[in-house]
Amino acid sequence: MTRDDLIAMLGEQTPACGPARNALIAGADFVVWNGPKRRHPSASREEPLRTGSIDAVDKSSWFTIFLNSMVTAVVACCGGRRATTMEWADTSESGA
Prior knowledge:
The chain is α+β, with helices and mostly antiparallel strands.
């Protein structure tokens, strides 16, 4: 799968798909695993899914992608911004 293929497949399936697409356009690293196929927990059908990940160039965001078993469509995407070291320390100290 090429970067352009994945960019084209990332629509508005979930709120995270747009930011994931933007990360790819900006040069993010990505991988789609060939390993065991998994079924997305919220999927209503029994089709096995392939998974992958997208990691922003500046490592500030990450995304998990779920594709159909033939790797021809993105079914869902989740992810978001990684906490910075300072954000992590603030959260740890506050007990949140």
